[in-house]
Amino acid sequence: MPVTYNVYRDGEQVANGLTETTYVDTGLTPGTSYEYQVSAVNNVGESPLSDAITVTTSESEPDDPEGLNSPNSTDTTVDLEWE
Q1: Comparing C-alpha atoms, which of 41, 42, 48, 55 is closest to residue 9?
Q2: pTM of the predicted protein model
Q3: How many domains does the chain have?
Q4: β partners of residue 9
């Protein structure tokens, strides 16, 4: 049996039977820290978990403001509105 890999996030298995040594974890929350570990599996069993790493997802950029307009202006002021 060839070696496969299991991935754990925060102590819970999120992937198993991986044959590649890469994994993309999706559906995570922006600006949140997660702890990951990996194990190897062969016909004898599963290895101990690797050392843990902590990874933090980036913050999402806000949506662009829309509808910028200037409903009023004078010789010294400008009013701005947007959504």
Answers
A1: 55
A2: 0.73
A3: 1
A4: 12, 36
Read off the tokens for 70: 């200037």
In-domain check, residue 14: yes
**Cα 16 from Cα 39, distance rounded (Å):** 9
The burial class, CB within 10 Å (0-12 / 13-18 / 19+), for 36 is middle
Q: How many CA atoms lie within 13 A of 23 on its CB side?
A: 19
Count Cα atoms within 13 angstroms, Cβ side, for 13: 10
Structural domain boundaries enclosing 38: 4-56
Answer yes or no: is 49 within a domain. yes
The pLDDT tens digits for 9-55 are: 999 999 999 999 999 999 999 999 999 999 999 999 999 999 999 99
Write down the residue that tokens 């996030």 correspond to. Answer: 9
- How far apart are the C-alpha atoms of 66 and 83, rounded to whole Å? 5
Write the CATH number for 9: 2.60.40.10
